[in-house]
Amino acid sequence: MRPRHPGWRQITWGSKRDRRHTRALILLTPQPPAKHRGSAMSTEPIKRIVAGIREDLPHTVELFLKHNWDQVPAYAVSPDPELRKEVGDHAEAVFLAVLTTLEEGRAAVREDFQFTVDQATRRVRQGVALADFLQAFRIGQVALWERIVEIAAADPETSRAALPVASHVMQVIEVGSTVAAEAYLAAHQVELAEGDRIRRDLVEDLLAGRAVRPGPMLEVARRCGLEPDDRVIVLIAVPVRPLRPGRSLREALRHVRTELGPAREGVTVIRQEQLVGILPVATGDVRTIVPDLRRIYRQLAREGFELAVGASTVHAGLAAVPAAYAEAGIARDVLGAEPGVMALPMISTIDYLVLREDPTARRLVRPALRQFVEEDLSRDRVMIDTMLAYVACDLNAKLAAEQLHVHVNTAYHRLERIAERTGCDLRRFADVEELIFAIRLLTEPRRTVRA
């Protein structure tokens, strides 16, 4: 049996029968003397390993960088020109922490990795995911271990010292990666909160017609694909059913951002219990992207979010966002209390004018027409429905009767009564138009286009 290294405890895994197959799983765990727990590390072979690593440290760092850029795509695709230098400096600092603790004969502690906190914050801002950040630690550990193996091959004594050094490297990297993960998560939470605040401020400024201010807000706008002269649409989504227990609009917001993806994300926020999105578009007709909006709507519905979604027409430039927001609100109002997707170009001009809630237009309705509408609404609105069917059938009473499932003589009788009560000649376009406007203005908005 191989003699144990002084001050180290041998642990094996596997049954007695299988031990010959598990020699690769032998780990030498440090057990320094109680009086001075660093003394076991203070040996000449270990000093030779430390000296060899220090002498060739730039080469080891460069080797790590090559492997990291080859194996982790997030680093290779990053547009930050400073990333490679920063990662190299960080790797060198981690390697030096390994060497310093080896020389001092002690285990690594959190204080040895103060520099990692700043690096973790930088990786968050550079768009490097946590998994990629921690993978860099593992790649660095391998690069350092490969260098240790090269140095240890010089003589048997140094080779034996490589095992406790390897155990020490793992302990140091474990502490370093723990500090890195905690710092990354803390920085990520701050970044999310700050990003949400900037997005909300950006939306408020755009809705108020203010130009995007230079600084973080302008950076967010550009990351979201929003340039001053770009074509944009505005979306408004409002829950029409109570959310399921445990659900929130913030979760719906995450789904929307995920489904839109980076190519069309724009900026979407929660504002006054509704989702408001400002999206860049390449088309001049919002109806071409309605299928995508409906796909997202159906996905949200499957997740328990029943939303009424209104979309504006396409506007040129961010200065038009206030007008686009008003349009999206009108399109959303067409849906009433029903879930669905409605783009403003999908409704008629008359419906648009009616939905604008112009009090002056209501006051201009002639008294006779107002009385007719209000009286019929207080009853069974048979006359109103007959008039609407008559217009929908291009002033063809026979077709209107079929649509209403009544005899044609009944339809003619109702139309005569409408003419008597309103003073309108239902064969004159101007009179019919005025009556229809009065009906639309004085009745609740009704959906005329399926979502």
Quick check: average pLDDT? 82
CATH C-level name of the largest domain: Mainly Alpha
Helix content: 55-70%
CATH architecture of the largest domain: Orthogonal Bundle
Strand content: 5-15%
Spans of at least 5 consecutive residues with low confidence: 1-42, 446-451
**What's the number of helices?**
18
Helix/strand-derived category reads: alpha+beta
Largest sheet: 6 strands, mixed
H and E order? EEHHHHHHHHEHEEHEEHEHHHHHHH
Q: Overall 3D geometry?
A: rod-shaped
CATH topology of the largest domain: Globin-like
In terms of quaternary structure, the protein is single chain
- Radius of gyration (Å): 36 Å
> In the residues, how many domains can be counted?
3
Query: Tally of extended strands?
Result: 8
How far from one another are the termini? 79 Å
